[in-house]
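Subject: mismatched residue count in predicted assembly?

I count 202 residues in my input, but I want to confirm that the predicted structure covers every chain. Input:
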Amino acid sequence: MEKKVIKHWSDLFKTEITLTIDERLNKIDEKAASEKKLQIANEQLAKVKDFLPKR
Amino acid sequence: MQHEVYKDLYIKEGYSVFEFLSVGRRGVIAKRIIFAPTDYPYIYNMTFGDIDINNEINDLSISDNGDRNKILATLAYAIEEYLEKYPDRIIFFTGSTYGRTRLYRMAISINIKYLSSKFVIYCQTENGILNFEENTQVTGFLISKKV
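Triage response: the counts match. Full output below for your records.
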């Protein structure tokens, strides 16, 4: 299968980075894969919910 | 920034998962970064760690591969790329231990001049959310794209 490759210039590091879209990673559910850490984050954010930056 | 960064990364379509290989004195170690939505609008949590034998993130492992700064730089790059893709989002992250949160704070402090040209950085403290300050005891970080 042909892989999709993206060349990206990083302003921060002044270099070109190669990003390859990987079918294996497309199968990952990011919420399930980081469930414990997400739970901790939500608990921490709840303590400061009134101070969170607005967009 | 002057730091070396890993230049070959694998991603999920939509940029919510990044992977790269750490190459150092203990061999080749696969690393994964995940950005996932929290319960709060616009705020996405970043999880980072080694990929274990069950294909899950282990954020407590100590790989001691001699490339710590290059890994931290690659994390900063992933944040840069993610916020380029989603400029309205805010990334929240914390270390898996007190020591790692402190390491992140020190790394941000050392590079604040470069980082603040691209990002607005806040720290979570016992007193709420503050603009990033060196030498402040923090429990987490929030990063947004500078507009």
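The first helix of chain A runs from residue 23 to 26. Marking this ticket as 'not a bug'.
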